[in-house]
Specification:
The chain is globular and about 55 Å long. The chain has eight helices and seven strands; from the N terminus they run E-H-E-H-E-H-E-H-E-H-E-H-H-E-H. The protein has a seven-stranded mixed β-sheet with strand order 3-2-1-4-6-5-7, sandwiched between helices. The longest helix has 23 residues. By secondary structure, it is α/β, with parallel strands linked by helices.
């Protein structure tokens, strides 16, 4: 695949999963050797020490936040540090197979390589490997979000996304904007594309999100984004 791109992985205490994921990524993209940026968002584990001992790949960069600033700020930091115009975002917990990152990038390369159109390619998990409660709550949240924001996205909670650096930097920043990227991109007249991807079960570590720290924050942010979109239309 003759495409210059950067893969950004925000992490917070993912030392148990990130190194096997790095190995998978380097094997998956052994020919392309993309720039890989790991944004360590104030982790309190041994990530930095282990990374120094394990890796010397020139194409892998680590950017550290002194304290935890949240996934969206970590994403923004990674995008600002990227050298390439095409950005792929993925989680560091190992649930996003690198082969699915390739799938999104291949779709871009085959269909939009020579286009200047603003677009966001979103992964759509067709067989989620989560608990029943998480699946149900996510399904309800997706239905509510789509009905209010009309964002053309099937699965906004899927971390896998591909976009252009310049289009991302044009978006208004908000703390939990990663949950509303399709709506914010569409607000800026971008095309939203959904690509089916495989999901894997989390085998190590624990999720940083649950119903209590997602639901009410999500409702508040949904109202903010809806208001923002309406103002943009005025």
């Amino acid at each position: 695949m003759d495409l210059k791109f950067t893969i950004i992985i925000p992490i917070f205490n993912e030392v148990e999963s990130i190194f096997s994921l790095i190995d998978e990524l380097t094997n998956e993209f052994i020919i392309e050797k993309p720039e890989i940026i790991i944004v360590n968002d104030g982790s309190t584990d041994e990530f930095n020490n282990v990374f120094k001992k394990k890796h010397s790949h020139k194409n892998i960069k680590v950017v550290n936040h002194k304290k935890n600033l949240g996934k969206c700020m970590a994403m923004l930091t990674g995008v600002k540090h990227s050298e390439n115009h095409i950005i792929a975002i993925m989680d560091g917990d190992g649930q996003n197979p690198p082969s699915e990152v390739r799938k999104l990038l291949k779709y871009w390369n085959e269909n939009y390589r020579n286009s200047e159109e603003s677009l966001l390619i979103c992964g759509h998990r067709v067989d989620r490997k989560d608990s029943i409660i998480k699946k149900i709550s996510s399904k309800v949240a997706n239905k509510v979000r789509k009905s209010i924001l009309n964002d053309d996205c099937f699965d906004t909670a899927c971390a896998l996304k591909v976009f252009r650096k310049k289009n991302y930097l044009e978006l208004p920043y908000m703390r939990n904007m990663h949950r509303f990227l399709p709506a914010l991109f569409k607000m800026k007249k971008s095309k939203i594309i959904n690509v089916p991807v495989i999901d894997r079960p989390r085998v190590v570590g624990i999720s940083k999100y649950n119903f209590s720290n997602r639901f009410w924050v999500g409702i508040t942010d949904l109202i903010k984004v809806h208001s923002l979109i309406n103002k943009e239309k005025e």
